[in-house]
């Protein structure tokens, strides 16, 4: 599969989302990086505190900590009163959504780095899958938040969700890679696919950004199915089931990835 320079994680829509206050409050400084121009010392301190709150929240969501989250527990760990948390996040759900958006950005960045480091001799598809597995294993709390529970309220994919651009950016990376492979001939989608399916306009736009002629919706659905299969293996591993079946998880995952990619017509893994 050919090497592909993908878009910077976030894209235009994710950048626009980042420019809105991720806490839902009127203070936009929390949505800006600490080194953004024009920030006052108070702004930087506020951003730093917000980041500390999210870091503590992630640690409390970790399985070894019980995987539960309360604003009172977060406040205790940060060293502030529970009421003070509300200066930064309006509710527990507000905080969890902010942590979830960070998680989507983190995994998208991990996939992007994996693709940036691919050499001409390496195989992009397999490398991407292993980068995804590595991130999931290293971030069990974030994995559980955005996948096991479907986001803070199960609505990350809602059209009106502020998290939606971050979710789409995460899926952009594997989709762009596969579409580029179809275009250069390293991926040959099987003929006689199922009847046409409806695909979200954002996904069609991502495909068209790589292949101006567009990609058939049923092919995108096929690619989504392959990603779901790879993700499913990781889910079974993360939650302790795959270890009941095989002894070498990484080797078994590698075989599964190669089989899955070959089954949808990837010639150059």
In brief:
The chain has 269 residues and is mostly helical. Helices cover 59% and strands 0% of the residues.
Textual characterization of the structure:
There is one protein chain. The chain has 269 residues and is an all-alpha fold. The protein has a domain at 11-20 and 95-263: Orthogonal Bundle (Tetracycline Repressor, domain 2), CATH 1.10.357. It contains eleven helices and no strands. The chain has helices at 11-18, 41-61, 71-78, 82-85, 92-116, 124-138, 140-148, 164-184, 201-210, 217-238, 249-263. Helix 2 packs across helix 3 (71-78), helix 5 (92-116) runs parallel beside helix 8 and helix 6 packs across helix 10. The radius of gyration is 20 Å and the shape is globular.
Write the layout of secondary structure elements.
Layout: H1 11-18, H2 41-61, H3 71-78, H4 82-85, H5 92-116, H6 124-138, H7 140-148, H8 164-184, H9 201-210, H10 217-238, H11 249-263
Helix pairs in contact: 2-3, 2-5, 2-7, 5-6, 5-7, 5-8, 6-10, 6-11, 8-9, 8-10, 10-11
What is the CATH homologous superfamily assignment of the domain at 11-20 and 95-263?
Tetracycline Repressor, domain 2
Instruction: Tell me the structural class.
Output: mainly alpha
The top level CATH class name of the domain at 11-20 and 95-263: Mainly Alpha
* Computed CA radius of gyration, to the nearest angstrom: 20 Å
Could you name the ranges where pLDDT drops below 50 across 5 or more consecutive residues? 2-26
Q: Oligomer, anyone?
A: single chain
Strand count, sense and barrel status of the largest sheet are: none
**Tally the helices: what do you get?**
11
H/E series: HHHHHHHHHHH
Shape: globular
Would you report the number of β strands? Answer: 0
| N-to-C CA distance | 6 Å
CATH topology of the domain at 11-20 and 95-263: Tetracycline Repressor, domain 2
CATH architecture of the domain at 11-20 and 95-263: Orthogonal Bundle
The proportion of residues in beta strands is under 5%
pLDDT average, as an integer? 80
Helical proportion, percent range: 55-70%
